[in-house]
Amino acid sequence: MSEALIDITNHKPAARETLLSAQGLCFDARGQRLIDSVNLEVATGRCTVIMGANGSGKSLLLRLLHGLITPSAGTINWRGGSLDHVARLQQAMVFQRPVMLRRSVAANLRFALKVRGVHGAERKTREAEALALAKLENLKDKPARVLSGGEQQRLAMARALISTPALLFLDEPTASLDPASSLAIERLIETARENGTTIVLVTHDAGQARRLGDDLLFLHNGQIAEAGPVTRILEAPQSEAAQAWLGGRIFVPDNPKSETI
Ligand SMILES: Nc1ncnc2c1ncn2[C@@H]1O[C@H](COP(=O)(O)OP(=O)(O)OP(=O)(O)O)[C@@H](O)[C@H]1O
């Protein structure tokens, strides 16, 4: 059996602790099935990368897994139990475009701690650590919304990591950043992993997937077309959808002659 921890074939998963799993997950909107019968398992300590064409359902899947939207069918389990409010506090999410409070950099960080009931001296210590981690000490009193895109994304990462989440969802966190800022975000992701945070990362960047990922889940039309180790899929994709996408082609299931873009 392959090392894949995302089980789409009903094989038994590898013997690692499952942090998050989904069974038969579906999401419908306006009469359309946008996420279709997704089964997956995310194991503790791994970095699972989700790739797929624009509109294949990557963001929707992350939102479902983080409990931001309700599935039309199927179940999501967190550490073997349900994905409730307490479970969600053990997770964090960073979006492509950071959503900042109209407050200072430091106040944005403090808010994340307040929500999780961290007060007093510990709040101060964690705030200082997060500012240092994201190299934002000199900007701590600035309004968060005037920061550059790269600085805002570092703040979004620091705010997500300040509570040392068990699982961090990242939705194209470097899509609008230059190479230096992207590298800074990748370093923060690596640090998070070293500190024990499990990662689920949506990216279109195969290099980033290779640098950071262990397992890859390839989505096509809301379904998992292929799942397995990142290097295996990037080097030798087996599904037509992944082959076409990685080869720079559009795959239209009803039209076997895929177009080159
Ligand atoms: N609330 C909604 N109602 C109806 N359709 C939606 C809704 N949310 C997303 N969609 C549609 O679902 C499909 C998947 O969207 P999603 O944002 O998950 O794609 P994606 O794979 O993340 O794409 P991209 O790579 O462009 O970010 C798209 O066709 C989108 O228009």
Automatic annotation (TrEMBL):
Instruction: Please provide the record's keywords in A-Z order.
Output: ATP-binding, Nucleotide-binding, Transport
PROSITE patterns according to UniProt: ABC_TRANSPORTER_1, ABC_TRANSPORTER_2
SUPFAM superfamilies membership: P-loop containing nucleoside triphosphate hydrolases (SSF52540)
Q: For this protein, what is any one GO molecular function term?
A: ATP binding
Origin: domain of life: Bacteria
Q: State if Nucleotide-binding is listed as a keyword.
A: yes
Residues in ABC transporter domain copies: 20-246
- What's the protein called, per UniProt? Tungstate transport system ATP-binding protein
Q: Which residues cross the membrane?
A: none
Taxonomic classification, please? Bacteria, Pseudomonadati, Pseudomonadota, Alphaproteobacteria, Rhodobacterales
